[in-house]
């Protein structure tokens, strides 16, 4: 964007006065942040309007997602507009610390983890590629909780990003719609956020819906002096968009959750149909030529019967006509094969909350039954397995596949597992629907913004084409044997490690040594991700260092960051265990020069941006077959960390691109896990035979560690060592993989000493990270699923 520096400065000062009634000298950082945000919103308004008009002529893709984990917008917007340097200069002239102003922004944390962050990266890529694509979601008043530690346990504190409103959103009251449930209606009020592309005038939109009551105040009750009940309806309605469900990869099956899903999906579809009619009238036979809708996991799948309802009940189409449009409009992304994540709704609840949509779902199910009876006449078992409504439950993934044009997994390995195992029945019925779309991340946020030092050095070496074409990083291979370049790579990494150390000292009063190896595992806390394997290795390392203080050893700092779902007892116990190990290690002068452990509090996007650039080692150690893709692994790679991982998710493709010799792969493969399950895995075998492992496992229950009486360490011990009614002992193969993991850690510790060889591996990873740009992912969706084409202002 071309705006004059002096004009920009004057606008900021004016907004400060208009919005807060202050001169610069009196203003707080937060107020300066807001004034700057307002200035940007004013300056982009015209391009935003023009983009909307331009896109309305095109086929558009609508990305429906219950989560958008956006993080902060200011830095990203300034970079994408190309005015970050100007703003920094202005602030310098005015004597303002830009970093403090940036820190005044709260994360828009409307998501749990990878799924929500993927949606955010996709929006950035859509805008940058000038693609007509918009996001639709929920404007949760409270995003993912803020995490604090008390006695090493996680405490959840409410997150309140909207406390003082939000400078990046514009309310659009004229586009309000009504959403009707079995027990009444609510108003869905949209707020639009601009999604500013890099190096383009195009500005896309994320539309988030907020729930409101039809009758804000019941005057009858109010007049009877019944104050509380007078606002009851308002409170109940507003509850729908009140809070994000904090579960990652688990399904709660709660009524409010179903209401949230139907609320934002119905509002979005009404909006899409309204826009279509405005452009094309009521000839809905053309609908799928102008509209593609992507369902991010099963959360918005209720959209399939809802669009049927709109077409049949409101627009007067026949069932057949409606279905032939619907089945060409939607596509579905599967994000997991974990059984506990597969959404199923109890029919009683579903019928109560959305009675008409339930009837239509029954109709779709009946239609599918006929297809199945015809396709598999001699296989009643299979016909049963594939029914959408089965017993008392509605299987949302089956509804998604049946009602969609395309179904995709999120990494090659994941899609293969879907085709050959989890969704085998469906793949055999509809092979043409299935395809893979390996996830990606936006290099604008995860390199250009997060690691400006590395970004400008790369630009110095190969030019800035990588910012919009990440495959250009391949040109860095030319410098693999250039010692000056390798030294500079190491120097930048060191600088980022110092910055992270300073941040941790400032925020958590923790001292770490930037000369040590930064070995990092940041992601949601889940048993399948195996933070437990990581901390077991640390306990064993501690035991070995205590027994033999003089072993040749490169100092290591283990860094964790993770939120646990508030109701996930075992995950919270693992957080407590890591914190307890951290205390034990960090306070022990016999080892704390060599080993430190840090748990970063309240891991979120803004903190992630400080962590990824500072990592030497990227821990991606899930049980093979369990992590659909992972995207954290890609952010690490792009910033030059080496992957310590299993052959799972996108790790497989990372080593395919960068070379297995430039990363550290260990552990059971998907096939080996399957074999062990089949032939019976007994964790007592590694427990009794792997040196040191028994001592580590026993320490959970022998008094070494203390769970303060809540019993969680005993539970973890039991899950590892005993078969339970629901699962086999050590179902995630922590003990089985322990020895291979420890051996790989030891190799890393030795190889880190050879700094030039390490730097070469690091550069090799950066140079081959091109595939993992979300620009590549989005281009594939655009070409192979949505069939949309760029339209540039
Ligand atoms: C990228 C990201 C994730 C996803 O991490 P995985 O390791 O892929 O699970 C989760 N949370 C935040 C804040 C992220 O930035």
The percent range for strand residues is 5-15%
Catalogue the ligands: pyridoxal-5'-phosphate
Q: What is the structural class? A: alpha/beta
Shape: globular
CATH C-level name of the largest domain: Alpha Beta
Q: What is the architecture of the largest domain at the second tier of CATH?
A: 3-Layer(aba) Sandwich
Distance between the termini: 13 Å
The stretches of 5 or more residues where confidence is low (pLDDT under 50) are none
* DSSP helical segment count: 34
As for the number of domains, it is 3
Could you please say which CATH topology of the largest domain applies here? Rossmann fold
Beta strand count: 23
CA-atom Rg in angstroms: 27 Å
State the share of residues found in helices, binned by percent. Answer: 40-55%
Integer average pLDDT = 96
Topology summary:
Layout: H1 5-20, H2 29-55, E1 60-64, E2 68-71, H3 74-81, H4 84-94, H5 98-103, E3 108-110, H6 114-128, E4 133-138, E5 146-150, E6 153-157, E7 170-171, E8 177-181, E9 184-196, E10 203-212, H7 219-223, H8 227-230, H9 232-238, H10 255-280, H11 287-290, E11 291-296, H12 303-314, H13 319-329, E12 330-333, E13 344-346, H14 347-353, H15 355-375, H16 380-385, E14 389-390, E15 393-395, H17 396-402, E16 407-409, H18 412-422, H19 424-429, E17 434-436, H20 443-449, H21 452-462, H22 483-508, E18 517-522, H23 531-547, E19 556-561, H24 569-586, E20 595-600, H25 605-611, E21 617-620, H26 632-638, E22 642-645, H27 651-658, E23 664-665, H28 670-679, H29 684-689, H30 693-698, H31 712-721, H32 734-751, H33 755-767, H34 774-786
Parallel strand pairs: 1-4, 1-11, 4-10, 11-12, 12-16, 16-17, 18-19, 18-21, 19-20, 21-22, 22-23
Antiparallel strand pairs: 2-3, 5-6, 7-9, 8-9, 9-10, 13-15, 14-15
Helix pairs in contact: 1-2, 3-20, 6-34, 10-12, 12-13, 12-15, 14-15, 22-33, 23-24, 23-32, 24-31
The structure holds pyridoxal-5'-phosphate.
Pyridoxal-5'-phosphate is lined by residues 113-114, 117, 523-524, 604-605, 608, 630-632, 635.
